[in-house]
Amino acid sequence: MLHLAIVPLLALLADTPQTRPNIIFFLSDDHACNAVGAYGSVINETPHIDRLAKEGATFDRAFCSNGICAPSRAAFLTGVHGYINGVENNSHKFDGTQPTIATQLNDAGYTTAMIGKWHLKTDPVGFDYWDILPGQGHYYAPDFRTKDGKRRVQGHVSEITADLALDWLKNKRDPQKPFMLMMNQKAPHRAWMPAPEHLDMFEGELIPEPPSLLDDHEGRGTAAKEQEMEIADHMWLWYDLKIDPDEGTPLTGPDRWAKGRYDRMSDAQAQAWKEAYDPRNEAFDEADLEGDDLTRYKYQRYIKDYLRCVAGVDDSVGRVLDWLDENDLTDNTIVIYASDQGFFLGEQGWYDKRFMNDPALRLPLIVRWPGVTKPGSRIDAMTQNIDLMPTLCAAGGAAVPERVQGEDLRPLLEGETPEDWRDAIYYRYIEQGVHNVAPHEGVRTDRYALIHWPTHGEWELFDLETDPQEVRNVHDDPAFADVRSRMHDALDKVRTIYAAPSMSGS
Ligand code: CA
Question: If you measure from the C-alpha of residue 215 to the centroid of ligand 1, how many angstroms do you get, rounded to a whole number?
């Protein structure tokens, strides 16, 4: 009965955790580089995420393929652009039969889990275990859903998501296999509702404003002038800024949804909010602000709640990193911190994302891979969300499907940039209606961004070196004729490389 002895030995060889790294992928929602300490934030600190940067590699030019939640998540998972994986806007349903990070690693012998915000409408495939927020999810008393059904969990979503991730790591995974965990935080997505313990952070401080907070968009094209994502004009007092209406005031817009969110709080949570926000709201009433003063005030209210939510995300990362340390797993675990895309933190006067400008286009991407990444290293090669899929499949010994458009980041992580590494990325946004941002596509190189607005028949060109806030479109400036020509060629090239279908109007 020789085979009885051989089979367990082969199984052991195939799945020895020591030879294949575990993987923890933290994916947050709308976390801009400008709110990450490791990216030089001047407005907050993120000690746990920064620890990853100190011990690993930080990508300075990592970009999304499409600056909204679902399309970016689908691109991270599949390694291909949205027009190939089928998710180009937030209402598209993800086709779970296609290969993803999870299906490939699961097939290769990994035990896999997805915890938190999924946002792809169909059930996760390739995960042995999943526990997800339906849709966007709630900050307080969020519903979570597994294959066995939905339940409500008391508490704040950032802490609960970490609780559930740690519970899977401790109690639910197959300890005989290497693991891959995706922990997807909802925060700091709108409407920025911090946990009770963070409500007083930054109070009494003045958060620095971005230089373009009061920009009038005169230097930009039509799309920037017609959008509806201004801090000044498109924020809702209750829903966004936590300034509750007087009794009997008719509610309009998103303010109509605000009450349902507050009603989910426990009495203690509601009391903590009342104690924190009532004095601020009374002071706001008394101040009777107008014009730029009101915009500046709204920025302070918005950015502080956003940063309080970031603090909750950072804490959750710290808890999982501590658990790895305590269980001697740090040295054999790849840890990734990323966001689905960036966010405008007042640049150009905006909140939200969508526009192919750096605050939204760029995303934080930090990788700690002991034995591969050099501690504290910075990587300036052009990278994109589609690169994570092939990178993690290769790291785990899983097959990388032929169709994958991303590149294995491993040479960059080892400190070598291959000579033929890409010099430009392709971006494409087609959602219509939300915040009135027109569809656009474009190309970003290390210095320039060229954006095509087919519905307006317009182009924008930005020189990020001389105009880092991207408020001056130089597309038709004769001084940029050569750059313009090169960037149009670059756009044609990336459209070809990434097999992009033509956008209407182009
Ligand atoms: Ca997002």
Answer: 24
Which stretch of DSSP H or E encloses residue 12? Answer: helix 2-14
Q: Which two tokens stand for residue 495?
A: 């459209």
What digits encode the pLDDT tens for the residues 234-272?
Answer: 999 999 999 999 888 999 999 999 999 999 999 999 999
Q: Is 149 left (phi over 0), alpha (psi -120 to 50) or beta?
A: left
* Chain CA centroid to CA 82, Å: 16
Cα–Cα distance between 183 and 180 in angstroms, integer? 10
Neighbouring CB atoms inside 10 A of 271's CB total 12
pTM: 0.95
Q: What is the CATH number of domain 426-497?
A: 3.30.1120
Distance CA 297, CA 299 (A): 5
Residue 371 Cα to ligand 1 midpoint, Å, equals 31
- Listed by start position, the domains of the chain span 196-302, 426-497
Burial class (CB in 10 A: 0-12, 13-18, 19+), 209: middle
pLDDT of residue 18: 54
Residues 137 and 117 sit within 8 Å (Cβ to Cβ): yes
Kindly state the tokens that stand for 62: 């990592």
Find the 352 Cα to ligand 1 centroid distance in Å: 9
Rg of the chain (C-alpha set)? 23
Beta-strand runs (E) in 72-198 = 111-117, 129-133, 143-146, 149-152, 179-184
